[in-house]
Amino acid sequence: MMKWEKLLARGRFGDTPGFIPTQVVRSEFEVDYDRIIFSAPFRNLQDKTQVFPLPEQAFVHTRLTHSLEVSSVGRSLGKAAGELLLKKYPILEKTGISAYEVGAIVAAAALTHDIGNPPFGHAGEEAISDFFKFHMAGKCWESHVRGEQWADLCNFEGNAQGFRMLVSKSNGLKLTYATLAAFTKYPRPSFIPHRDIARRSQKKYGFFINQLADFEQMGAFLGIEKSSPECWLRHPLAFLVEAADDICYSIIDLEDGCTMGLVSFDETVKLLAPILKDKFDPKKLKDRSNAQNLGALRALAIGELINETVEVFAQYEESMCKGNFDKALTDIIPSAKALQKITAVSVEKIYRSKVVLEKEAAGFQVLEGLLSVFSQALYHQFYHQERFSGQDKSILRLLPEDFPLKGWGSEVNPYPLLRALVDFISGMTDKYALNLYRRVKGISFPGS
């Protein structure tokens, strides 16, 4: 059984053994939050799609505003859970941990929950996967890498990309192990012989195979146990990070959809009312504008969902530590059916709306096009030098200065090279990806 005093330990990724934190003004977990806020990968989220294409209207959420809101909800969930844990486990007082620090862990992890997402949202994830699965310029690498590495490439996962970015020395974040573990909703690699579909934590994967040692280091420090030889248990706070995300995208995507006219105001109210229960008063809607009403209803709904989630967490946290509980908290709260109805309407009227589908189609074209030209140039340079053209040379000059272009050849496994290429493409903002695509395809010229 996992122990909270270890799960909340203050060790930091990259510190030498025996290092003692010296922070006085800020807790170690507040340091995590601040480092993330000021990091370039987090800043890039302001120009990445949440659901709708980056619009002229300021009210539609980007990945950045979504992440800030999820973090805010996460802090509330974590602080409330921390108060429960401190009452239940007096031994935690000896560690000096506070409820506020538990809230800071969840807030920091929630802030990063989308940091590994590529341009164009989930369509971008699928586009990168499809490139290696189906495109000749991607499939040509299959025979040069190992099976578990190919599984990583053919199933791009934003959660695993996020973990890679958070532990990367180039980003310099050096987060605490607790924040990294709370971030990791899917504590397994991509290539496993059997996936237990009953366990929510095995639905996707959370780290690439070349981050296995990093994950093992984190798990050992926090005392995170395994559910099988290949898979770990979730850190219990990861359930709260997941719930914060579920709450925000369910309620706020609906709010955006209503504001854009895809879902009527009356239908939106009807969907939110079951969550609010006796707090819903139709009479109050008459005195305010629809926008004001939407804001008020959203705030009340999120507050109610936070309370319900904390109650369920308190009920199951022991089972989480034993590895017996592995479900999404928002699937078992009293408002679960109301959230399911919101999701069904969102899929039909928002996620499959013309404007969203057009964005996804464009994303496929842009990412496939970029991967194709860069992948082909790299393959020609290292495997078919007789085909290495002037165009290939020009393309490779567009790669970042620190891109690892030396040391590759037919006798060297190119997985790290391909990982670096995917880092480059997935780290782009929507607008940068689109502009670069136009230039490498000759559709536009620099400065035009």
From TrEMBL:
EC number: 3.1.5.1
SUPFAM superfamilies: HD-domain/PDEase-like
GO biological process: dGTP catabolic process
Residue ranges constituting the HD/PDEase domain according to the UniProt record: 59-259
Matching InterPro entries: dGTP_triP_hydro_central_sf (IPR023293), dGTP_triphosphohydrolase_C (IPR027432), dGTPase (IPR006261), dGTPase-like (IPR050135), HD/PDEase_dom (IPR003607), HD_domain (IPR006674), PHydrolase_assoc_dom (IPR026875)
Regions that span the bilayer: none
Signal peptide (UniProt feature, chain positions): none
Keywords: Hydrolase
Top EC class of this enzyme: hydrolase
GO molecular function, one term: dGTPase activity
Protein name: dGTPase
